[in-house]
């Protein structure tokens, strides 16, 4: 019970500090705190943008695009109607 009471008091203290900062409109103590938050939000936005682009690429690009395949140039010596000769198996 002692651990639960300590945790409850700590959470209450933290909540009171956050509410006090919200009431006083001073969420950040310095400009470095504000800059760190902005950098974090830019990083988070970039990650979300990349995830969105990956989802668009996986979902839309594979089903919506029509790929034009070019015929490959193959020498007539190695290709037969049954497949490609494996010359390593020849005696």
From TrEMBL:
Region span, Disordered: 69-91
Subcellular location: Membrane
GO CC, any one term: membrane
InterPro entries to which the protein is assigned, alphabetical: SIM_Modulators (IPR053081), SMIM5/18/22 (IPR031671)
Alphabetized CDD domains for the sequence: CASIMO1_SMIM22
Swiss-Prot/TrEMBL GO biological process terms: lipid droplet formation; positive regulation of cell migration; regulation of actin cytoskeleton organization; regulation of cell cycle; regulation of cell population proliferation
Keyword set includes Transmembrane: yes
Main localization of the protein described in the UniProt heading: membrane
Sequence intervals crossing the membrane: 35-64
Record's bilayer topology term: Single-pass membrane protein
Entry keyword set: Membrane, Transmembrane, Transmembrane helix
Name used for this protein in its record: Small integral membrane protein 22
Species annotation: Canis lupus familiaris
Primary gene name: SMIM22
